[in-house]
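My current task is to audit a protein record that another person submitted. Alongside the sequence sits a line of tokens, each denoting a local backbone shape. Please read both lines and tell me whether the tokens look consistent with the sequence. Do not assume that whoever made the record got everything right. Thanks in advance; the entry in question is below.
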Amino acid sequence: MPKPTPARHKIAIIGCGKMGSRWVEQFVTEPRWDLVCICECDPDRRRAAASLAPKARISNDFDAVLADRSINTVGLFTLADLRAEQIRRALAAGKHVIAEKPIAADLATEEALLAEIEASDRLVAVNLFN
């Protein structure tokens, strides 16, 4: 019996700075992931992202990424003070989330966000790439 083909997960990367670009390098080589889009506000980083992942759509529109129903996961590699609201919005859009730590800029926000994550039906992975 042939081995089943693993499911492919469609992901968008939000933030392609130092950490985000390292995640991009991994996702483009991983057969279980389809890197659909990279969203970055800085034009120089968008150009760099295009060279790292030539098949991915490059954008600066976070709302459009969240509205894209083909994307089921977002990788949030932005600054910590932006991350909590981005996680909330991604969950509200029905996305699974991979994020760097910390997930918020302060402990109180992290604790409130953790309760929201636990109440959702989405998977949220928090990791430090290194």
Observations:
- The chain has a mean pLDDT of 92.
- The first strand starts at residue 9 and ends at 14.
